[in-house]
Design brief:
This is Glycosyl transferase. By secondary structure, the protein is α/β, with parallel strands linked by helices. The protein is built from 14 helices and 13 strands. The strands form two sheets. It has a seven-stranded parallel β-sheet with strand order 3-2-1-4-5-6-7, sandwiched between helices.
Length: 385
Amino acid sequence: MRVGLVCPHASPGEPRLAPVPETHEHVTRVATELSVRGHDVRLYEPEGNASGGSFTVERVPVEAPSAAPVSRLTSHVASFGRWLADRWTREWRPDVVHGHFWVGGLAAATAVRSTSIPVVQTFHSLAAEQRRHLGSAYAGPGERATLERALGRAVDQAVAYSGDEADELTRMGLPRANVTVVPPGVDTELFHPEGDAQPRAGRPRILAVGLDAGHGQDDVIRALRLVADAELVVVGRGARHAEARRLQELAASVGLGDRVRIVDGVAEHELPAWYRSADVVACAPAHSGAARVALEAMACAVPVVGYAVGPTGECVVDKVTGRLVTPGDVRELGNGLRRLTTDGTERFAYANAAVDRVRVRYTWERTAAGLERVYERAVDSRRAA
């Protein structure tokens, strides 16, 4: 099958379109896995991104929307879509197009509107949900929610990370039959229990990963007050110096400055050692997003205490691979963290169950197979129509 992936994201280190991090890495891994399974895959993205491996990267010769302020993103959709339409008319024509994030989906839908090419869409994050949970911290364009609803009506199939996201999409007007839950995968060759660990002092260590809006590290810092003698290390992929300073100031303001350490600029290959150094990983996202942190921790045999929301609430099995608590309940979060930092027997049992669960249900091979089935349904529905 010829699969066109449309992703408007910049490469790591450049300004990003999405408030959810690592989307570009997710898309490139999808492209790799689909290529390994024998599909002809082309990834379309703005100029300046990293080259593909087993798949083809097509540079879009328009002003990169990833470099534009979020308030002007929609102005780039038309030129992006026109270039794609011309490419697919004159050269290589995909059997199915998979749009990522709302701008990528709009460009894909624009490009195929006079053709019979089906469109599959992964939103990665939704404006309506982010507005509910982030409030004034939401920085997306005002028209985004309206455009996402229109996009949902235009695509043939939508991919959700979790049942919660699928419900959100149906509330936006998408038919439930056209929404399929395909959880993200985790790289089990990189994230596994064996290997080096970051050094630590004698006290228990809680790890939190992510320095972008929505990760919920404020709640984790406040929950630390209920966990005597433990340290909290918050690591961030990429440089987020301003957020790192803000969190350190928050820790100092609640009397925990000496027990909270913020480390930003951590590279992907360095993360497994950080996970392995921890007794427990805290996941307290403000909105559903993806479950990447929880899955990576579980793959490294580290139990998770997290909010029972979105993909995290589905990949973590309460009292089997970790503890799930009520979203927003800082006291319950702190109690769960305290229990796992002090009960070694429970922690050991959860750790072993976590590794097994990832290897059975959350591999990239399983994710690619799920996407294949979605693509086939989209193609079959267009043929029937």
